[in-house]
Design goal:
By secondary structure, this protein is an alpha/beta fold. It has one domain: Glutaredoxin. It is about 45% helix and about 20% strand. It is globular, with a radius of gyration of 18 Å. The N and C termini lie far apart (about 45 Å).
């Protein structure tokens, strides 16, 4: 029989794990060419977001992408964030002319891109192209 004390410890432990699981589901990786190439070679669904911390559109996109990633169909989506200000070589590599650029890949193939989009439905449609 489980004592009241053990039951409380089990419940408290479970509650503390919930934020960790949510954080793992919303993991956004800093772009690195090696990690990006590995994900592409593995045939992963990938979103590259060209982001700037000062950009209001990027700030509006972040919670939308986070919410969409909670959907079961996007559970395997890998998100790489390219810093528009400090990763100029990557910005150039992706042909991004501005921050708030979202680029979807299905394995090695670019499946679509958008710039400045803050509409949940159209961002969801872009992410669906990675599946």
């Amino acid at each position: 029989m489980i004592s009241r004390r053990n039951l409380i410890l089990i419940a408290a432990s479970s509650i503390m794990l919930i934020p960790l699981a949510a954080a793992a589901a919303n993991d956004i990786r800093t772009f690195s060419p090696a990690d990006f190439d590995a994900a592409r070679k593995a045939g992963k669904s990938i979103l590259v977001e060209v982001h700037a911390d000062w950009c209001p559109t990027c700030k509006a996109q972040a919670p939308i992408i986070s919410e969409l990633r909670k959907e079961p169909r996007f559970k395997e989506l890998v998100v790489f964030r390219v810093d528009f200000d400090s990763q100029k070589e990557a910005v150039k590599q992706f042909g991004a002319r501005s921050q708030s650029t979202l680029i979807a890949f299905k394995g090695n193939t670019e499946a679509g891109r958008s710039v400045g989009d803050t509409n949940k439905a159209s961002i969801g449609a872009l992410l669906a192209k990675t599946l």
